[in-house]
Structures are given as C-alpha cells and as structure tokens.
C-alpha cells in the first residue's frame, strides 16, 4: 500500500473515532443537564454544559480530519492535511477557555456549600458513569491518535483524562454539599482548571509551530540522513527538511552524487532515495529530492597491475585480464595502499566475464574510481552503473606516475569502453581453452 493510501485509511479511521466520541459526549452532556435539572443539582447542570463544550472540541477534531482527508487538487497540491493542525489550534483555544471557566467556577465554589434535602443518588450515579465512559473514550482517542499521529485526537484524549478529574470534582462537590463540607469542590476545581489551561496553551503553541513549519522532529531528521547515506550513488547529504502537515510529514532532501554521472543516473538516485524514505517511514506522505554534483573527499581507486611492488607496481594492459589489483585510498593527507587483490579467476575453465567476477568481489572496498589501460564493454557499464569514474591509464606505467597524473588532472575520463564485448568473449573462450593469461 502506498503512503498516500495509508494516509487516507488513517484519516478515515481518525474520523470514525472522533465521530463516535462526539456522539457519546453529546449523550453524556444531555444526560447530565437533564438529570441535574430534574434533581435540582446546579453543579451537575454546569458539568453538563462543560461536557457539551467538550463535544464541540471533539466535533471540531472530526471536522479537521474530514478536511484533511480531502483529495489533492490543483489549488491545494499538498492536500489539506494542515486543516487538522489548524483545528488543533482552535481546539487549544477552546480548551484554554474551558480551563479559565473551570477556574472561575472553582473560585465561586469556595465557602460552605448549600445542603440538599434528599440524597443525590442519581446525580452521583451519572457522575460515576461519566468517569467510566470518559476513561474508555480517552484510551480509544489516545490509542488511535498515537497510531495515526493525529495531534487533535491526542489533545482531546488528554482533555478527556482531565475531564474525568472534573467529573470527580463534581462528584466530590455533590457529596460535600450533602455533608456540608466547605472548600473541597472549589480547591479541586481550581487545581484541575490549571491543568486544563496548561494543556490548552501547550496545544496552541505546538500547533502554531507546525503551522509556521518549525523543525520539530530532529531525531527523524537524523534517521533519514543515516538511511539515505547508505544508498548507492549518494556521496553526501547536504540537508534534510521536514514539514509536518496534520498527521503526516513532507520531506525535502538535498543530496550529492557523482558529478560525472549522467542525468538518467541522477534521476535514478533521486527515485531510490524517495522510495527508501517512503518505505522506511510510512507517515512521510511525500519526498522531494534535489540532486547536486558533489566532490569526492576521498578517492578509493583500483588499478590492474602486472606485479606486486607497492606503488611501483606496473599497470596492466587490460582490466579483467590483470593478475593483480592494487586498491589505494587517495585523500588530502596522501596515498595509502588498502590492499592487493589476486585475480584467482584467470586460468579457470569458463573464464568468460572475468572482469564482472572481479568487480563483484572488489565492490566491498567501496571503490569510486578505476585507472585502467583497457576495459571491456560489460565491465565498463557495470562500473558506471555503480557510479565509478573510469580513467585511462598507460600500460607499464608505475602506479606512482598514474596517481601523480590524476592529481594534476592530466588523465582522460573514459565515456565508452575500449574493448568491445565480442572481443572480450572471444579472448575469454581462447583462454578457457588453455592459453595462459
């Protein structure tokens, strides 16, 4: 399933959760208001109106998810995912306002409560049922919000947990009024109001940062850089930018690749980066990749040679038919010999495509450059597909001279093989018949 399809499925799931929570919350608000009015419990009536305000918050979350699920259009090419963030901002305002209202209500409740005549059994039952239902709603909202990364659902889940505390304060107030215990309800409501206000302000601030495209996910940024750095053809990662749009992420990658790579190879690298990022991180909805020519900071080169004599070894006349290969690392500090490789494929039966077999074994060195006098067609294209630059060396030239000419920029960069495929196959067939390399 593609990331766009995942986005639509997740948004639809979030909508169902928010719509169900809206219906249940509306039912609780109506029950509290009616029972509170019937049993002359102003506190329960007030809690009913507070629950109704929670209904508007949850319904706003559903509406935001509904807008975010709309298909992309020419006018909105990135989709309407940020509608969910905008609604989260509005929800934060409503939650903060609710916190202020609860605070003012708590201040009004300081002092001795007025005792009621009959024991308020049904209001107590309603408050208890409200806490139980609120708990399961909060768990469901939080679970779905975390799974689909919906900020609005995560916010209303936290608000639902705080509403359980509000219902508990209402229950304590009803019992305090019955037993004529002062201050209990007021103190609890003031404490809870401060928690609600904190939640609202945090939601406002976080939503505002998202709307302003702030970088809020540095760990994800580091993970993406590490992931795409291992892709063949990527020589460096200059920058990774992440924009959050509702539950999803929009990513921009600025990468470096071999400056000598043709355009089609650069496009191939960009496609591989996009596919890898989307596959590894499902909640990244789109990836924009910009490829720039990079500079090889360290050159890892192989050179086919006739003998083993360090940097004085002589260059062989052909890539695949060389008995040895020297692997060198060329950096700012100088040249370092990494290894000597013995071409064990020479002299064997069916020694056709020796160069291909050698390449498969030498790729473990992370090579990016080859110096050779001649190279066959298959080996040439295989190395070019692996983003290896191929330079023409001179047969019998010492490796030191080859490297010196490379440092001076006095070497020809090959754009085509020097040895046709038919000739390589014919030579391989002759050698497999018994000729010595």
Could you characterize what this model shows?
It is a single chain. This protein is an alpha/beta fold and 437 residues long. It has three domains: 209 residues, Cation efflux protein transmembrane domain (Alpha-lytic protease prodomain-like, Up-down Bundle), CATH 1.20.1510.10; 76 residues, Cation efflux protein, cytoplasmic domain (Alpha-Beta Plaits); 134 residues, Dinitrogenase iron-molybdenum cofactor biosynthesis domain (Nucleotidyltransferase, domain 5). The strands form two sheets. A five-stranded mixed beta sheet has the order 6-5-4-7-8, with helices on one face. The protein has a three-stranded mixed beta sheet with strand order 1-2-3. Strand 1 and strand 2 form a beta hairpin. Helix 1 packs antiparallel against helix 2 and helix 3 runs parallel beside helix 5. The two termini are 53 Å apart.
């Amino acid at each position: 399933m593609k990331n766009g399809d995942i986005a639509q499925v997740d948004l639809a799931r979030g909508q169902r959760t928010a719509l169900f929570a809206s219906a249940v919350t509306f039912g609780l608000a109506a029950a509290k208001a009616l029972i509170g009015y019937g049993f002359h419990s102003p506190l329960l009536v007030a809690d009913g109106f507070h629950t109704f305000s929670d209904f508007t918050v949850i319904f706003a979350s559903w509406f935001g998810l509904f807008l975010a699920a709309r298909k992309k259009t020419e006018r909105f090419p990135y989709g309407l995912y940020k509608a969910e963030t905008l609604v989260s901002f509005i929800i934060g305002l409503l939650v903060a306002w609710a916190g202020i209202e609860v605070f003012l209500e708590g201040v009004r409740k300081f002092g001795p409560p007025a005792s009621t005549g009959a024991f308020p059994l049904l209001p107590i039952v309603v408050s208890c049922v409200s806490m139980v239902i609120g708990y399961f709603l909060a768990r469901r909202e939080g679970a779905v919000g975390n799974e689909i990364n919906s900020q609005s659902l995560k916010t209303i889940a936290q608000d639902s947990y705080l509403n359980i505390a509000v219902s508990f304060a209402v229950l304590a107030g009803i019992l305090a009024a019955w037993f004529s215990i002062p201050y209990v309800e007021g103190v609890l409501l003031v404490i809870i109001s401060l928690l609600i206000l904190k939640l609202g302000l945090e939601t406002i601030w976080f939503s505002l940062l998202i709307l302003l495209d702030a970088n809020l996910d540095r760990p994800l940024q580091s993970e993406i850089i590490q992931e795409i750095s291992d892709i063949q053809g990527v020589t460096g990662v200059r920058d990774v930018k992440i924009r959050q749009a509702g539950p999803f992420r929009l990513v921009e990658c600025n990468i470096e690749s071999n400056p000598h790579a043709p355009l089609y190879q650069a496009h191939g690298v960009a496609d591989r980066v996009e596919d890898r990022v989307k596959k590894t991180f499902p909640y990244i909805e789109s990836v924009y990749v910009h490829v720039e020519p990079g500079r090889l900071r360290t050159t890892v080169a192989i050179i086919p040679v006739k003998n083993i004599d360090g940097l004085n070894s002589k260059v062989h006349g052909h890539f695949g038919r060389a008995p040895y290969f020297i692997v060198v690392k060329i950096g700012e500090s100088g040249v370092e010999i990494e290894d000597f490789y013995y071409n064990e494929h020479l002299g064997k039966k069916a020694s056709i495509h020796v160069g291909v077999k050698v390449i498969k074994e030498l790729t473990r060195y992370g090579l990016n450059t080859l110096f050779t006098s001649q190279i066959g067609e298959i080996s040439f294209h295989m190395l070019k597909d692996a983003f290896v630059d191929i330079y023409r060396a001179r047969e019998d030239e010492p490796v030191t001279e080859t490297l010196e000419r490379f440092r001076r920029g006095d070497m020809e960069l090959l754009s085509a093989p020097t040895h046709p495929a038919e000739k390589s196959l014919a030579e391989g067939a002759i050698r497999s018949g018994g000729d010595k390399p």
